[in-house]
Amino acid sequence: MTRIIAGEARGRTLKVPPAGTRPTSDRAREGLFSSLDARFGFGDARVLDLFAGSGALGLEAASRGAAEVHLVEDDAAAIAVIGHNVGVVKHPRVRVHQMKASTYLATAPREAFDMVLADPPYDLADEAVVEMLEALRPALADGAVVVVERHRESPDTAWPAGYTPTGQKLKKRLYGIARMDMATYAQEHR
């Protein structure tokens, strides 16, 4: 069981897919979102949640005031759970996209997102994570923040040109086996 930590939907319980995804723990989400809220805020943010699983990351952003949220997931069972969870949070500007993250990024609108929350499978190769970050660049607004969740033992995220890890306090956060790597993006590197 997982729940929304703060905002309009605070305390509401979300379902998680029965298998095939690895939900971010409530503790990790609470720490991550406290950091994001303090540094960047959510008011009017356009948020992309890649590898959405239950949708908990994107829906937390919606509950905290994001203007719009796009949830991208390819697993059919997870999509059914996301549909339920969107109904629980009741944010009017949440969109669900059933497709692979790479397919979505190939057609994503340009400069559309201020915040990206990417939670790829821990066994996804580091090179594939870098490819995802490369493909993401056209969809990022100037100054966008990007968060990548990885296993704490995996190598540090290799940020491509244009990404700058955000200060020492936010650059890397550890929560159990999860590590949150963060960077901001500058458009002059397109």
Automatic annotation (TrEMBL):
Pfam families membership: Cons_hypoth95
Record-given protein name: 16S rRNA (Guanine966-N2)-methyltransferase
Native source organism of the sequence: Corynebacterium guangdongense
Keyword Transferase set for record: yes
NCBIfam families per UniProt: 16S rRNA (guanine(966)-N(2))-methyltransferase RsmD
Enzyme superclass (EC): transferase
GO MF: 16S rRNA (guanine(966)-N(2))-methyltransferase activity
EC number: 2.1.1.171
InterPro entries: DNA_methylase_N6_adenine_CS, RNA_MeTrfase_RsmD, SAM-dependent_MTases_sf
Keywords: Methyltransferase, Transferase
Signal sequence extent: none
